[in-house]
Amino acid sequence: MSIKDKPQQPRSRLIGNILLLVSGGFLLVNLFLPQLFGPQIPRVPYSIFIEQVQDGNVTRVSVGQDNIRYQLKDENGQPGQILATTPIFDLELPKRLEEKGVEFAAAPPSNNGWFSSLLSWIIPPLIFVGIWQFFLGRGGGGPQGALSITKSKAKVYVEGESAKTTFADVAGVEEAKVELAEIVEFLKAPQRFTAIGARIPKGVLLVGPPGTGKTLMAKAVAGEAGVPFFSISGSEFVELFVGAGAARVRDLFEQAKKKAPCIVFIDELDAIGKSRASGNFMGGNDEREQTLNQLLTEMDGFAATEATVIVLAATNRPETLDPALLRPGRFDRQVLVDRPDLSGRQAILEIYARKVKLGPDIDLKMIATRTPGFAGADLANLVNEAALLAARSRRETVAQADFSEAIERVVAGLEKKSRVLNEKEKKIVAYHEVGHALVGSLMPGGGKVAKISIVPRGMAALGYTLQLPTEDRFLMDEAELRGQIATLLGGRSAEEVVFGSITTGASNDLQRATDLAERMVTTYGMSKVLGPLAYEKGQQNSFLGEGGMNPRRAVSPETAKAIDGEVKEIVENAHQQALDILNQNRDLLEEIAQRILEVEVIEGDQLQNLLAQVRSPEKVAAGV
Ligand code: ADP
Ligand code: MG
Ligand code: ZN
């Protein structure tokens, strides 16, 4: 037996003994003067304190130099539990408190005389010794051990710890629920899938606008499966110190693997996952890139059979993500969590209405009808605003009128973010989309019109018309391309036919129609005037010109003029065709638009029956 086997650290043991002695004395003093320390007041992080203030849960606050004590409201709004937090340098605090009408004062200076002076002698060395001990305890004591910033700050919610979130708490996003239900199965019984050799997906990306319930969904998946939930936000990775983010990712996955099966949830993935190619070249991206690389390594690293760790991530800007993140074995599944439609909004309102006392005149369906474009978070906010209004006028229950007023308030806020349509805009969008659908239903090769919706989707579109191809297509003929252009112009044409004026809403349609027409002329050689020549260099995608080069072959001014003329003619013809169709089907346009204004989405058989009534100009000419 060698001496090495016996760890001897006399220095640290000595310090340990001193610490024991000092804290023993401390304990003694503590026992004798219980009134000074009183019962232990629970301490919370400062951020939680601020959150509670902002949620209006705090009644009064006593702000001391190095201690803030505050009192929460209980369910009845009466002063309740007392908590403490350690203040950080926050000049905004008085303003925040004032805004929420919180009573606050500075804490009286402590005058414990001899005792506090005694403490001021004891505590500093104690802290010093404590820190020393801490370093020794961390073993290595290297930079990683010394600076705890590299440790993951992931919050862990284990099932049963707090009120469990389940799918019942999420409404209006049924498709997403169905897809995620499968993930729940994976987490519950991974063996069932691995036994037959199926690979369990590692990463699922939740995509959708802010406030649609992505975070909520991720928690619900953990809740349904009854597994631990590690949550961290992408912006928390972005750190001052290069390498800290990467270390944090490593640590997060280490923790997660120990608790498998479990879920790792990365909120705001775009904060770390921005495409490296499109990133700025000014430097300063090192940190993010390292973090991203570490994330990719971790996701590749664990075999699905070894531990079932499913990484869920959320983003509202999927287009900015690095393509490396979306490759198989990483976030290869994407689930759309979109804004709810009419019935979805009603379902969400029902969830939140249960939490407030409603008057007899409440009509949730009506409220849902009046809130197109609202995301789940907006609806939750709406119910709360209405309840606040009722409480302010000292009524016992929330009335429909409160909701009306609350809608106006919330809408005013959202309109600024251009997310909600007013009545007139909604009408224009309805006719516009029906215009696309009517023209599209007659055009060859465009596929079946499967759905018309005036629920704002994604980031930019106000409404949309979905055309599903009936089969895979690789080649398109000239007539089909012309048909596509006409369909694209159908929206704007409907605005012209119905309102006699045009809005800015069709710009994207026009862009696409013009691009298509230009490609017909310059790439596909479909113009009689210009002949079968390729005026475009390279691939189809060259209209962005890789590296900013002029994508077009050197052409004479006459040819350039001819190209422009041909493109214009194709688009104009298609425009006229669309106008003709819509004029011929004016009644049907009206009927479908009115129906869609009522229900917001038309699809399936109902839509097919309506579109079957569309009459083509040829049929009309033939007197059918
Ligand atoms: P996101 O992560 O998509 O931005 P969150 O999940 O953070 O949205 O949603 C914020 C809050 O809004 C949730 O905590 C919940 O109260 C409410 N909420 C949002 N979407 C829904 C929904 N589909 N069903 C029920 N509540 C929702
Ligand atoms: Mg979120
Ligand atoms: Zn359009």
Compact description:
With 624 residues, the chain is of the alpha/beta class. The protein has helices at residues 10-32, 34-37, 46-54, 93-99, 114-137, 143-146, 174-188, 190-195, 214-225, 234-237, 244-258, 270-273, 286-301, 342-353, 364-369, 376-392, 400-416, 423-442, 478-499, 507-522, 557-584, 586-599, 604-611, 617-621, and strands at residues 58-63, 68-73, 79-85, 103-106, 155-157, 203-207, 229-233, 262-267, 309-315, 333-336, 448-453, 464-468, 601-603.
Give an overview of the whole structure:
This protein is of the alpha/beta class. Helices cover 49% and strands 11% of the residues. The protein contains 24 helices and 13 strands. The protein has a six-stranded mixed beta sheet with strand order 5-7-8-9-6-10, with helices on both faces. Magnesium ion is lined by residues 214-215, 267, 314.
Strand and helix map with partners:
Blueprint: H1 10-32, H2 34-37, H3 46-54, E1 58-63, E2 68-73, E3 79-85, H4 93-99, E4 103-106, H5 114-137, H6 143-146, E5 155-157, H7 174-188, H8 190-195, E6 203-207, H9 214-225, E7 229-233, H10 234-237, H11 244-258, E8 262-267, H12 270-273, H13 286-301, E9 309-315, E10 333-336, H14 342-353, H15 364-369, H16 376-392, H17 400-416, H18 423-442, E11 448-453, E12 464-468, H19 478-499, H20 507-522, H21 557-584, H22 586-599, E13 601-603, H23 604-611, H24 617-621
Parallel strand pairs: 1-4, 6-9, 6-10, 7-8, 8-9
Antiparallel strand pairs: 1-2, 2-3, 5-7, 11-12, 11-13
The structure holds adenosine-5'-diphosphate, magnesium ion (MG) and zinc ion.
